[in-house]
Design a protein that fits this description.
Elements: E1 2-4, E2 16-17, E3 26-29, H1 55-68, H2 71-81, E4 88-89, H3 91-97, H4 113-127, H5 132-140, H6 214-224, H7 231-239, H8 243-246, H9 257-275, H10 284-298, E5 303-304
Antiparallel strand pairs: 1-3, 2-3, 4-5
Length: about 300
């Protein structure tokens, strides 16, 4: 049985599978990845109010993030890091750099990032064996977190991780810990605090400034290094943390037709990004040859970062 998705299905988790070479609009309701009942701490996923050992750390993260992520800040960061003049290295070298980092914005996991990358990629690979670009997207989607590394300026976590959102227009109330936006100077600026702000209806997300972090940075790295990933792969990399859009349907008035098509793939991807997090370890050396073959297929040997 197949279904055609005309628009995002919000707050509904379904098992989706695309036939080999298939259209993402034709999604087969099939078996596959089973969404777990609880995260690594035994709590509900993305529950920012649960009394877990991560609650205070996560809320403090979002307080600073929402206050500091202004239109001016994002413009400055994009200009600086968009030059891609920090270093030159391959994709797997970057993966290994992430071993020492834990994401302070994540209420569901406190393991090094390489574990999350491999868990995501392997879960996708099992359900979508013929979509190798999607496997690789799962592996690399968080590589922009190297911004935390000293050689990249050692940016604070609030400028690297967490849910993303547009700057330059009104913040949507569905955002996690929305209350802290009231302390952001853009919240009170009439140029930026309306529904459209500096944008126009259907302008396309490529023309929208997103809060600065690992998503946008890795998107710039992939695009400027001429990756041959399809448009949907680049879309997933840039917007996988844009939960107000792909979970709640906010900001759809800024999307164009290509965005809406790519959003179907992001809904496929998001289940694996979010729910594959666990304390189950992946045998890195066993799976590395496969992912190296994909890296060589879609990326140059060395990239500018």
């Amino acid at each position: 049985m197949t279904i055609t998705i005309e628009q995002p299905q919000l707050d509904v988790v379904v098992e989706r599978k695309v036939t080999a070479g298939g259209d993402p609009a034709e999604l087969v309701l099939d078996g596959g990845f089973v969404v777990p009942d609880a995260n690594a701490f035994g709590k509900t996923f993305r529950d920012y109010e649960a009394d877990s050992e991560r609650k205070e750390t996560v809320e403090d993260f979002y307080r600073v993030n929402h206050i500091q992520q202004t239109h001016e800040f994002v413009s400055r960061m994009r200009a600086e890091y968009g030059r891609l003049d920090k270093t030159a290295m391959g994709i797997w070298e970057c993966i290994e750099l992430l071993n020492e980092f834990v994401d302070d914005s994540d209420p569901d996991l406190d393991m090094p990032q390489i574990e999350h990358l491999l868990q995501t990629a392997e879960a996708i690979r099992k359900d979508y064996p013929d979509q190798d670009w999607l496997h690789l997207t799962g592996l690399i989607h968080d590589l922009g977190k190297v911004l935390l590394h000293p050689s990249f300026g050692e940016l604070p976590q609030w400028a690297v991780v967490g849910d993303t959102f547009p700057v330059g227009c009104a913040y949507d109330e569905c955002s996690v810990h929305f209350k802290y936006f009231e302390e952001n100077p853009d919240y009170h600026n009439p140029k930026f605090n309306t529904k459209f702000g500096v944008y126009s209806e259907g302008c396309g997300l490529d023309n929208v400034l997103m809060s600065w972090g690992h998503d946008d940075y890795m998107y710039l790295v992939a695009k400027e290094n001429k990756s041959t990933l399809p448009s949907a792969g680049l879309f997933i990399i840039r917007y996988h943390s844009f939960y107000p859009l792909h979970k709640h349907g906010a900001y759809m008035h800024l999307m164009n037709d290509e965005d809406k098509e790519n959003l179907k793939w992001l809904h496929v991807f998001n289940k694996y990004d979010l729910y594959s997090k666990s304390n189950v370890r992946i045998d890195v050396e066993k799976v590395k040859p496969y992912y190296m073959s994909l890296i060589n297929k879609y990326f140059p040997e060395k990239l500018r970062w």
